[in-house]
Amino acid sequence: MEETISLQDIFEILKKRWMLILATFFIAIGLTSIVTFFVMTPKYQASTQLTVTLPTNEAGANVNDVNFNLQMMNTYKDFITQAQIVAEDARGRLEAETGFEGDFHDVQGMIEVAQNPNSQMFSIKATSTDPQEAMQVANAVTSAFKEKAQETLSVDKISVLSDATLPENPVSPNRKLNLLIGAVLGLMIGVGLAFLNEMLDKTVKDDRFIKDTLGLPILGVVPQMSAKELSAKLVPAQIESSTVTEKRVSEGTTRRSRSRV
């Protein structure tokens, strides 16, 4: 017969194995904290904001010009992140100003471009384990893009709306999110281990297993007693047994005394 489990059984299992679940929960949080705070290297991000304007016709800017500018955003992104002339120019600026020792591939690896939909404004973001370096790379790439784009892409004007500033807080790892994930995983693993232990436990837990699973009749039930209850039952029995023994000894002594007389 197929064995089923009820909601009450689930709560009983969780109640029975609560120490295992709690231990797994705290172990997971502890391991996540160690990895997040002591193993993972913090990364900082600095960004600049820019807008690019293409040459307009004599009638001035119109809707088509704006739409064309928006379509050019993907070109600007590729130019910033993939064009060697931009990365090499930025590397040269960094080397002259800060003693940067990497090559243009290192610069490209730190850079990403972000843009809101239907907006002519975009951001150049630099990510590094050093907050000072992140700020310097973002500003250097922005200056290199501004110069090379006007030479290569024939843009009319590149306006830097805000320069990169020194970031104070790391963008990764996300400590709160990591701890939350660790707590959820610890709880899930703890519950899973609780049910696994229950499945591997082949002892008979109640009379339903005998009747429903084995199909055997119940001949008798031995109640489970705690140590306190067992002690309460045994002490009066021991006192009564001792009293009976003493009475028998006393009667035997009296009987022997009479026989001597």
From TrEMBL:
Pathway: Capsule biogenesis; capsule polysaccharide biosynthesis
Pfam assignment, any one: Wzz
InterPro entries membership: Bact_polysacc_biosynth/exp, GNVR, LPS_length_determ_N
Coiled coil: none
UniProtKB keywords: Capsule biogenesis/degradation, Cell membrane, Exopolysaccharide synthesis, Membrane, Transmembrane, Transmembrane helix
UniProt domain Polysaccharide chain length determinant N-terminal: residue ranges: 3-87
GO terms, molecular function: protein tyrosine kinase activity
Localization terms from the record: Cell membrane
Residue intervals passing through the bilayer: 20-40, 177-196
GO cellular component: plasma membrane
Span of domain Tyrosine-protein kinase G-rich: 147-198
One GO-annotated biological process of the protein: polysaccharide biosynthetic process
Membrane topology according to the record: Multi-pass membrane protein
Family recorded in the similarity comment: Belongs to the CpsC/CapA family.
Role summary: Required for CpsD phosphorylation. Involved in the regulation of capsular polysaccharide biosynthesis. May be part of a complex that directs the coordinated polymerization and export to the cell surface of the capsular polysaccharide.
Protein name, UniProt field: Capsular polysaccharide biosynthesis protein CpsC
